[in-house]
Design a protein that fits this description.
2 copies of one chain form a homodimer.
Chain A lengths: L1 E4 L4 H12 L5 E4 L10 H6 L7 E4 L2 E4 L1 H11 L10 H17 L1 H4 L1 H9 L5 H22 L13 H15 L8 H11 L2 H6 L5
Helix pairs in contact in A: 1-3, 1-8, 4-7, 4-8, 8-9
Chain lengths: 204, 204
């Protein structure tokens, strides 16, 4: 199993967490995103999106972190990342997608670079953009998250695997987390779990 | 079943397509997004994200179009929107998420308004932004899509339900579609299906 990866990519970090939680061995290949290594022809043959992560597994080449996590859950079901019950599953996916669709796509490197290089925005404007979208998404999550140690209840699930990387990122951009005490408590609790700690990028 | 909706919202349009394909009756409540009706307290009680769509179904209140579609598929399985086989499922989700994570979040109304109002960008810069991200995502999809009448093969699935709204949107912003012949053929074929046609916003 080969994970095409970048340490600071939130989406890659989600997959590293899930691989660790499931105890799966994998080889890691890293791409310097700022240098554009993910646009090299060799990598585009693996993932035509030119984005990380991509996972090579069982002869498949798969992009999109949530598609990868769902596939791993189907093929290596223990411990489960996405609940089987339709209602619990819908609730978990609603939270995971709040991060994966409403926060992260707006705040990843290619967007911040476009704001800077193509729209001529300065660092302060880029930081304000970043915090605007993360705060909107975190406000939603603060209401959706359960009153439990993990987003997944008594054990971490796909929501924790999305939340911890987004929180690392939010801290990197000095987001004020005081309005989100439940979210912060869950993210910090999950981040201390060995499977999460081993997946983490360098400390801030 | 109540769908909280906005005709031009791509994410709502996805859910309308799936409800039609499954032959489910629903009541539609519309929100004027430009006027901010989705931020009214009554609606925030339904969906704390303050976004459309949200679906009230079987006592649940669910946000996030893909979570809604996955729930509907679990509870009303015919016709299937997301394949059951893990590999086919992963392939379908990779394509659906390419639209739902890599294209649509960058191009929906709240983002275009932020570019205009908060970053002082003119219409030409906003249109260039729009087309930049839709073209990047469509280039990926052009390679991932099957050589088949629908993205789902012989019948439409979740990918078609994401693709047709994104295509409507791309045409609204006058995107050049000549580099994407396979994608355009699939999207046009699916758009002509009665379940898709009935879900469509007003013609461009």
């Amino acid at each position: 199993m080969i994970l095409h990866d970048f340490a600071l990519s939130s989406a890659s970090y989600r997959v590293r967490i899930v691989l660790n939680l499931k105890g799966l061995d994998y080889e890691k290949r890293s791409y310097a995103l700022r240098a554009g290594e993910q646009r090299a022809p060799d990598y585009l043959a693996v993932n035509p999106a030119g984005l990380v992560p991509a996972l090579e597994v069982n002869g498949l080449r798969l992009g999109q972190s949530l598609a990868i996590i769902e596939y791993l859950d189907a093929v290596y079901p223990e411990p489960r990342m996405i609940p089987a019950d339709p209602i619990e599953r819908a609730r978990a996916m609603e939270m995971a997608l709040t991060i994966a669709c409403d926060i992260h796509p707006l705040n990843n490197l290619r967007i911040l670079k476009y704001l800077e290089n193509d729209l001529g925005q300065d660092q302060a404007a880029v930081d304000t953009w970043y915090r605007h979208w993360v705060e909107a998404g975190f406000a939603t999550l603060e209401q959706l998250l359960p009153d439990a140690p993990y987003a997944g209840g008594d054990a971490p699930n796909v929501v924790d695997a999305c939340l911890v990387p987004q929180m690392y990122n939010a801290r990197r951009f000095k987001t004020d987390l005081t309005p989100f005490p439940r979210l912060a408590a869950i993210a910090d609790h999950a981040a201390a779990h060995p499977a999460f700690a081993t997946a983490a990028p360098p400390p801030l």
